[in-house]
Design brief:
Layout (H helix, E strand, L loop, with lengths): L8 E3 L6 E3 L4 E3 L10 E11 L4 E9 L3 E10 L4 E10 L16 E4 L4 E6 L3 E12 L5 E10 L7 E7 L4 E19 L2 E4 L4 E12 L4 E11 L2 E7 L8 E4 L2 E4 L3 E4 L9 E5 L4 E16 L4 E17 L2 E18 L1
Parallel strand pairs: 1-3
Antiparallel strand pairs: 2-12, 4-5, 4-15, 5-6, 6-7, 8-9, 9-10, 10-11, 11-13, 12-13, 13-14, 13-15, 16-17, 16-24, 17-18, 18-19, 20-21, 21-22, 22-23, 23-24
């Protein structure tokens, strides 16, 4: 039985695993003497279904290394491109703040700038990658996006004990969220359409990090409904679908996929037979970095999600969802 948490709970070495419909877990005061660093990442993703584009920004702190990336996916042309910087981290300014209330992240280098600001009900994403070669053969992409979260909207939070309980991983996913703003594609300036959805994922690890990850995240429209899913075969606490601001919890899932991750369709089903998802991949982006005492390898595969979900009172036919599946392995 997956334990649902309904009250605010402080995260410490004895905290039990569980999931919640709101981000109820809180970190205690930062203890500098113990030198337990909080790692993890923030991911903002936006999909404009009228323009058939998807873009995302990731700010990750692995402790020794850090990853900052901006990805752009053209669903009409079925191509994906990315600008990424994965390197050894030497400055505290590129790491997560120890303050629980500090949720604003800023990064820049010669190839990109990103600002991910969290003001609760309103999140702001500002990204620039002027030299990115787009699938349309234009150069450069910018976005200024406002992402809106209502008080009544549920999210999905999961607290995992990892690596023989030597570490803790806390994940919260806010989706599907309304979004609006302006994008700059090459020399063109356009408003995001009314059929735009966003998602915000926040991950924080304490102690030993997760050694491997296989997760599917996507969102889209199903008739008059908006939906978002988060699925993993590794731990059922991560699995859920959110529809119009309501969480539907899903149990264990199994993934069937090609060894190269992208040459054929994926199949995702849950243990109770209520979820059947097909993922049709068309592009992938790989990242690999090997330093003297750390090694990180990852691949993100982009494509189209479709299928059917029947859980409790929910019956949803998914024809076209935007998103990706991430597979990562490494150690720090």
């Amino acid at each position: 039985m997956l334990r649902e948490v309904t009250e605010i709970t402080e995260i410490n070495e004895n905290t039990e695993e569980g999931w919640s419909r709101k981000p109820l877990w809180k970190f205690g005061a930062y203890d500098r003497k113990r030198k337990t660093q909080r790692r993890g990442c923030e991911i903002y993703a936006v999909g404009d279904f009228d323009r058939k584009i998807f873009f995302s920004s990731a700010y990750a702190d692995f402790g020794i290394t850090g990853l900052h990336s901006i990805s752009f996916v053209d669903y009409a042309r079925k191509k994906a491109v990315s600008c990424a910087n994965l390197k050894r981290m030497t400055k505290d300014t590129t790491r997560f703040s120890s303050s629980e209330s500090e949720r604003n992240l800023i990064y820049y280098d010669s190839s990109m700038t990103m600002s991910m600001m969290d003001k609760g009900k309103l999140r702001r994403l500002l990204i620039t990658t002027p030299y990115l070669d787009l699938p349309s053969e234009e150069k450069g992409f910018k976005a200024d996006v406002s992402i809106h979260h209502k008080d009544e909207d549920e999210s999905i939070s999961s607290l995992l004990r990892i690596n023989d309980e030597k570490g803790i991983s806390y994940t919260t996913r806010f989706a599907p969220l309304e979004a609006d703003g302006t994008i700059f594609i090459g020399d063109r300036i356009e408003k995001l359409s009314g059929n735009t959805i966003a998602a915000v994922t926040s991950i924080r690890n304490v102690g030993a990090a997760r050694n491997s990850v296989l997760e599917a995240t996507a969102f889209g429209y199903a008739g008059n409904n908006t939906w978002a899913l988060s699925l993993s075969p590794d731990n059922a606490l991560l699995n859920s679908i959110l529809v119009d601001g309501k969480v539907y919890k899903i149990g264990k899932c199994s993934f069937s996929y090609p060894s190269d991750l992208s040459s054929s369709e994926w199949k995702i089903i849950d243990e109770n037979g209520g979820l059947s998802i097909t993922f049709i991949p068309f592009a992938s982006i790989k990242a690999k970095e090997k330093l003297s005492i750390s090694k990180n390898e990852s691949e993100e595969v982009f494509g189209i999600f479709c299928g059917h979900i029947s859980i409790n009172d929910l019956n949803l036919d998914i024809e076209e969802g935007y998103g990706s599946i991430k597979k990562a392995a490494g150690r720090n």
